[in-house]
Write a structure and sequence with these properties.
The protein is built from eleven helices and twelve strands. It is of the alpha/beta class. The strands form two sheets. A seven-stranded parallel beta sheet has the order 8-7-6-9-10-11-12, with helices on both faces. The chain has a five-stranded parallel beta sheet with strand order 2-1-3-4-5, covered by helices on one side.
């Protein structure tokens, strides 16, 4: 019996590719997510495995005549043309919640690194500037005890981050589409109100067209000169030029980014901005979280090819 064909829109772990190869004919990874990047055999693909930040647009969908399933690794699915997918009757799945603990851990680490200037302290020592007989070698900075943490997006990641921040004795508030009745954290009616209240703003919301560049010059100004912003969601949520300007001019105190709008490209202005910590979209990438997400993708694929209801469909599919 011949194997069904699965197309990879990007590269994945060796573990995942091996598990896929045991069950399916695997094509890819594609060098980029577009119809011009399709290779021999791709037209037979019944399933496309991709990630939220990559485009699955009408042109790509139409170039895959046998396509029936688009399966997203991770919770995000902002890259898909929903109208085109609905017209084709595609099944679309994702892997929600599997990486929430890993991302929350990483966000907490970035909060500490940015506010306590851990990377700057490392450079201070390595550059031989720790000299003299002084009680404090670097300028003291505010600690986290009593600091106000604003969480933009209160899904699985936001909730887990709140529980971690509580252990640091922080005050915690959040903004989401609706208030949540099952938390003691304060609700703010808008992102701006959250930024005006917060010392540290963590972006943990799902990206969509309605919140493109939500963190702009105005919001950064509301955060203020002692504020820090951390993004572990999607790069499209922050206006990179506005952030670089805010760091250059001291509008905010610092920032930490794990995600960028056009990955893996990072704007030169961000690379040279002061008080900015950068990482290559790895908040999700603990081994346990990665394996859990891969297993959810595999479960969605198996259900689809067995003509069963997929376990993790996205709305409105």
């Amino acid at each position: 019996m011949s194997k069904s064909t699965v197309l990879l829109a990007c590269d994945f772990s060796d573990r995942f590719k091996q598990l896929l190869a045991e069950r399916y004919t695997v094509i890819g990874p594609m060098p980029r997510s577009g119809p011009d990047a399709l290779t021999e055999g791709a037209s037979a693909a019944r399933a496309l495995v991709t990630k939220g930040g990559l485009p699955t647009d009408r042109a790509l969908i139409e170039a895959l005549p046998e396509l029936g399933l688009v399966s997203y690794f991770g919770t995000g699915f902002e890259g898909i043309d929903l109208e085109a997918a609905l017209e084709r009757g595609l099944t679309v799945t994702h892997s929600p919640g599997a990486n929430a603990s890993s991302v929350a851990d990483f966000a907490m680490g970035m909060i500490l690194a940015s506010t306590r200037q851990i990377l700057a302290a490392d450079r201070f020592v390595r550059e031989g500037r720790w000299t003299g007989n002084s009680l404090v070698s670097m300028a003291a900075v505010p600690g986290l005890t009593g600091a106000r943490l604003g969480i933009y997006g209160f899904g699985a990641v936001g909730r887990k981050l709140a529980s971690r921040a509580a252990a640091f004795e922080m005050e915690i508030a959040y903004h989401s589409r609706t208030p949540k009745s099952d938390t003691s954290c304060s609700y703010k009616a808008s992102v701006r109100e959250l930024a005006e209240w917060a010392d540290i703003l963590v972006v943990a919301v799902r990206a969509d067209p309605s919140n493109y560049h939500m963190v702009d010059r105005s919001l950064l100004a509301a955060l203020g000169p002692n504020g820090h912003v951390v993004n572990v969601a999607r790069g499209s949520l922050i206006d990179a030029d506005a952030l670089a300007e805010a760091l250059e001019q001291g509008t905010i105190a610092g920032a930490a980014l794990d995600v960028f709008e056009n990955e893996p490209a990072v704007p030169d202005r961000l690379l040279s901005a002061p008080n900015l910590i950068l990482s290559p979209h790895i908040a999700f990438a603990s081994i346990s979280a990665r394996n859990a997400q891969e297993d959810m993708v595999l479960a969605n694929l198996e259900a689809f090819f067995d003509s069963r209801a997929v376990p993790n469909p996205i709305d409105p599919f």
